Protein backbone atom coordinates (compact mmCIF):
# COMPACT_ATOMS: atom_id res chain seq x y z
CA UNK A 1 0.00 0.00 0.00
CA UNK A 2 1.02 3.60 -0.52
CA UNK A 3 0.80 6.51 1.91
CA UNK A 4 0.49 9.83 0.10
CA UNK A 5 1.37 13.12 1.77
CA UNK A 6 4.12 15.15 3.36
CA UNK A 7 5.51 14.20 6.76
CA UNK A 8 5.43 17.81 7.91
CA UNK A 9 1.66 17.25 8.16
CA UNK A 10 0.93 15.94 11.67
CA UNK A 11 -1.86 13.80 10.22
CA UNK A 12 0.35 12.14 7.61
CA UNK A 13 3.08 11.58 10.18
CA UNK A 14 0.53 10.14 12.62
CA UNK A 15 -0.45 7.51 10.05
CA UNK A 16 3.12 6.74 8.99
CA UNK A 17 4.27 6.13 12.56
CA UNK A 18 1.16 4.12 13.42
CA UNK A 19 1.79 1.88 10.40
CA UNK A 20 5.32 1.29 11.63
CA UNK A 21 4.14 0.55 15.17
CA UNK A 22 1.63 -1.95 13.74
CA UNK A 23 4.28 -3.53 11.45
CA UNK A 24 2.21 -2.79 8.35
CA UNK A 25 4.35 -2.61 5.16
CA UNK A 26 3.86 0.55 3.11
CA UNK A 27 5.52 2.85 0.63
CA UNK A 28 5.58 6.58 1.22
CA UNK A 29 5.01 9.07 -1.61
CA UNK A 30 5.72 12.58 -0.20
CA UNK A 31 3.43 14.63 -2.41
CA UNK A 32 2.49 18.15 -1.35
CA UNK A 33 -1.16 19.24 -1.53
CA UNK A 34 0.21 22.58 -2.78
CA UNK A 35 3.33 22.03 -4.90
CA UNK A 36 2.19 18.61 -6.21
CA UNK A 37 -1.53 19.41 -6.45
CA UNK A 38 -2.11 18.02 -9.96
CA UNK A 39 -0.11 14.86 -9.29
CA UNK A 40 -1.92 14.35 -5.98
CA UNK A 41 -5.28 14.91 -7.66
CA UNK A 42 -4.61 12.06 -10.08
CA UNK A 43 -4.36 9.73 -7.09
CA UNK A 44 -7.15 11.25 -5.01
CA UNK A 45 -9.37 13.92 -6.63
CA UNK A 46 -10.16 15.28 -3.16
CA UNK A 47 -6.42 16.07 -2.67
CA UNK A 48 -6.55 15.31 1.04
CA UNK A 49 -3.52 14.30 3.07
CA UNK A 50 -3.08 11.71 4.29
CA UNK A 51 -4.33 9.48 1.52
CA UNK A 52 -3.79 5.73 1.65
CA UNK A 53 -3.96 3.63 -1.50
CA UNK A 54 -4.76 0.11 -0.35
CA UNK A 55 -3.36 -3.00 -2.00
CA UNK A 56 -6.64 -3.47 -3.90
CA UNK A 57 -6.57 0.13 -5.13
CA UNK A 58 -9.15 1.49 -2.69
CA UNK A 59 -8.33 5.07 -1.70
CA UNK A 60 -8.83 5.97 1.96
CA UNK A 61 -8.44 9.33 3.68
CA UNK A 62 -8.54 10.85 7.20
CA UNK A 63 -5.84 9.77 9.63
CA UNK A 64 -8.22 8.24 12.17
CA UNK A 65 -10.01 6.13 9.57
CA UNK A 66 -6.78 5.00 7.94
CA UNK A 67 -5.38 3.91 11.31
CA UNK A 68 -8.62 2.06 12.06
CA UNK A 69 -8.14 0.18 8.79
CA UNK A 70 -4.49 -0.54 9.66
CA UNK A 71 -5.44 -1.85 13.09
CA UNK A 72 -7.95 -4.18 11.44
CA UNK A 73 -5.20 -5.54 9.18
CA UNK A 74 -2.79 -5.92 12.09
CA UNK A 75 -5.35 -7.56 14.33
CA UNK A 76 -4.45 -5.32 17.24
CA UNK A 77 -5.10 -1.80 18.44
CA UNK A 78 -2.96 1.08 19.63
CA UNK A 79 -5.78 2.13 21.97
CA UNK A 80 -5.87 0.79 25.56
CA UNK A 81 -8.32 -2.06 26.08
CA UNK A 82 -9.41 -1.08 29.60
CA UNK A 83 -12.51 1.17 29.39
CA UNK A 84 -11.26 3.79 31.85
CA UNK A 85 -7.81 3.95 30.24
CA UNK A 86 -9.34 4.11 26.79
CA UNK A 87 -11.61 6.99 27.81
CA UNK A 88 -8.63 8.97 29.06
CA UNK A 89 -6.67 8.13 25.91
CA UNK A 90 -9.55 9.31 23.74
CA UNK A 91 -9.66 12.60 25.63
CA UNK A 92 -5.89 13.08 25.30
CA UNK A 93 -5.92 12.26 21.59
CA UNK A 94 -8.89 14.56 21.05
CA UNK A 95 -7.07 17.47 22.69
CA UNK A 96 -3.94 16.77 20.64
CA UNK A 97 -5.86 16.64 17.37
CA UNK A 98 -7.76 19.81 18.26
CA UNK A 99 -4.44 21.57 18.90
CA UNK A 100 -3.18 20.28 15.53
CA UNK A 101 -6.27 21.56 13.76
CA UNK A 102 -5.83 25.06 15.19
CA UNK A 103 -2.09 25.02 14.51
CA UNK A 104 -2.73 24.12 10.87
CA UNK A 105 -5.20 27.00 10.63
CA UNK A 106 -2.52 29.37 11.94
CA UNK A 107 0.00 28.05 9.41
CA UNK A 108 -2.48 28.49 6.56
CA UNK A 109 -3.40 31.96 7.73
CA UNK A 110 0.23 33.07 7.63
CA UNK A 111 1.35 31.16 4.54
CA UNK A 112 -1.65 30.96 2.22
CA UNK A 113 -3.55 34.16 2.82
CA UNK A 114 -1.90 37.34 1.45
CA UNK A 115 -0.28 39.40 4.25
CA UNK A 116 -2.64 42.32 3.71
CA UNK A 117 -5.60 39.97 4.14
CA UNK A 118 -4.64 38.53 7.53
CA UNK A 119 -7.55 38.76 9.90
CA UNK A 120 -6.25 39.51 13.39
CA UNK A 121 -9.48 38.72 15.31
CA UNK A 122 -9.63 35.30 13.66
CA UNK A 123 -5.98 34.59 14.45
CA UNK A 124 -6.50 35.61 18.07
CA UNK A 125 -9.48 33.30 18.36
CA UNK A 126 -7.67 30.33 16.82
CA UNK A 127 -4.57 30.93 18.95
CA UNK A 128 -6.75 31.02 22.07
CA UNK A 129 -8.38 27.73 21.09
CA UNK A 130 -5.00 26.13 20.44
CA UNK A 131 -3.68 27.45 23.75
CA UNK A 132 -6.65 26.00 25.63
CA UNK A 133 -6.17 22.61 23.97
CA UNK A 134 -2.44 22.58 24.73
CA UNK A 135 -2.95 23.58 28.36
CA UNK A 136 -5.41 20.75 28.94
CA UNK A 137 -3.27 18.35 26.91
CA UNK A 138 -0.19 19.09 29.00
CA UNK A 139 -2.17 18.27 32.15
CA UNK A 140 -3.35 14.95 30.71
CA UNK A 141 0.11 13.97 29.48
CA UNK A 142 1.64 14.88 32.83
CA UNK A 143 -0.57 12.38 34.64
CA UNK A 144 1.12 9.37 33.05
CA UNK A 145 4.74 8.20 33.20
CA UNK A 146 6.79 8.65 30.05
CA UNK A 147 6.64 5.56 27.80
CA UNK A 148 9.69 3.35 28.24
CA UNK A 149 9.70 2.20 24.61
CA UNK A 150 7.54 2.00 21.50
CA UNK A 151 5.60 -0.91 22.90
CA UNK A 152 4.20 1.29 25.67
CA UNK A 153 3.00 4.00 23.27
CA UNK A 154 -0.73 4.38 22.68
CA UNK A 155 -2.66 6.53 20.23
CA UNK A 156 -2.86 9.16 22.97
CA UNK A 157 0.91 9.48 23.31
CA UNK A 158 1.38 9.28 19.57
CA UNK A 159 -1.05 12.10 18.86
CA UNK A 160 0.31 14.28 21.66
CA UNK A 161 3.94 13.88 20.60
CA UNK A 162 3.20 14.51 16.93
CA UNK A 163 1.15 17.60 17.71
CA UNK A 164 3.97 19.08 19.80
CA UNK A 165 6.65 18.31 17.22
CA UNK A 166 4.55 19.96 14.49
CA UNK A 167 4.42 23.15 16.51
CA UNK A 168 8.18 23.12 17.00
CA UNK A 169 9.01 22.95 13.29
CA UNK A 170 6.52 25.59 12.17
CA UNK A 171 7.01 29.33 12.54
CA UNK A 172 4.36 31.64 13.96
CA UNK A 173 3.44 29.18 16.72
CA UNK A 174 2.77 31.22 19.89
CA UNK A 175 3.82 28.49 22.31
CA UNK A 176 7.05 27.63 24.13
CA UNK A 177 8.40 24.52 25.83
CA UNK A 178 8.18 26.29 29.18
CA UNK A 179 4.41 26.52 28.75
CA UNK A 180 4.01 22.77 28.19
CA UNK A 181 6.74 20.93 30.13
CA UNK A 182 5.00 17.55 30.10
CA UNK A 183 4.46 17.70 26.34
CA UNK A 184 8.06 18.77 25.76
CA UNK A 185 9.31 15.85 27.89
CA UNK A 186 7.07 13.38 26.05
CA UNK A 187 8.27 14.65 22.69
CA UNK A 188 11.93 14.41 23.71
CA UNK A 189 11.40 10.79 24.76
CA UNK A 190 9.37 9.44 21.85
CA UNK A 191 11.23 11.31 19.09
CA UNK A 192 14.16 9.03 19.98
CA UNK A 193 12.10 5.89 19.32
CA UNK A 194 12.97 4.03 16.07
CA UNK A 195 9.57 4.58 14.44
CA UNK A 196 9.85 8.33 14.99
CA UNK A 197 13.49 8.55 13.92
CA UNK A 198 12.61 6.72 10.71
CA UNK A 199 9.68 9.09 10.10
CA UNK A 200 11.07 12.61 10.57
CA UNK A 201 8.83 15.65 10.29
CA UNK A 202 10.49 16.71 7.05
CA UNK A 203 9.33 19.93 5.45
CA UNK A 204 10.34 19.64 1.83
CA UNK A 205 8.83 17.69 -1.04
CA UNK A 206 12.34 17.30 -2.49
CA UNK A 207 13.34 14.90 0.25
CA UNK A 208 12.92 11.30 -0.84
CA UNK A 209 11.65 9.14 2.00
CA UNK A 210 12.40 5.44 1.52
CA UNK A 211 9.44 3.10 1.61
CA UNK A 212 9.07 1.08 4.79
CA UNK A 213 8.95 -2.68 4.84
CA UNK A 214 8.07 -4.49 8.02
CA UNK A 215 10.50 -7.25 8.97
Quick description:
This protein has 215 residues and is mainly alpha-helical. The chain is 52% helix and 6% strand. The longest helix has 29 residues, at 83-111.
Question: What secondary-structure arrangement, pairings included, does this model have?
Answer:
Elements: E1 2-4, H1 10-21, E2 27-29, H2 37-43, E3 51-53, E4 59-61, H3 63-74, H4 83-111, H5 120-142, H6 155-169, H7 181-190, H8 194-197
Description:
This protein is mainly α. It has two domains: about 1-75, 3-Layer(aba) Sandwich (Glutaredoxin); about 85-195, Glutathione S-transferase Yfyf (Class Pi), Chain A, domain 2 (Up-down Bundle). It is built from eight helices and four strands, in the order βαβαββαααααα. The chain has helices spanning about 10-20, 35-45, 65-75, 85-110, 120-140, 155-170, 180-190, 195; strands at about 1-5, 25-30, 50-55, 60. It has a four-stranded mixed sheet with strand order 2-1-3-4, covered by helices on one side. Helix 1 (about 10-20) links the parallel strand 1 and strand 2. Helix 1 (about 10-20) packs parallel to helix 3, helix 4 packs parallel to helix 6 and helix 5 crosses helix 7. The chain is globular.
What brief labels describe this structure?
215 residues; mainly alpha; Glutaredoxin; Glutathione S-transferase Yfyf (Class Pi), Chain A, domain 2; 2 domains; 8 helices; 4 strands; 6% strand; globular
Shape: globular
The arrangement of helices and strands along the chain is EHEHEEHHHHHH
Tell me the number of structural domains: 2
How many DSSP-defined strands? 4
Fold-level CATH name of the largest domain: Glutathione S-transferase Yfyf (Class Pi), Chain A, domain 2
CATH class of the largest domain: Mainly Alpha
Judged by helices, strands and strand pairing, the structural class is: mainly alpha
| Largest sheet, spatial ordering of strands | 2-1-3-4
Q: Indicate the CATH architecture of the largest domain.
A: Up-down Bundle
Largest sheet: 4 strands, mixed
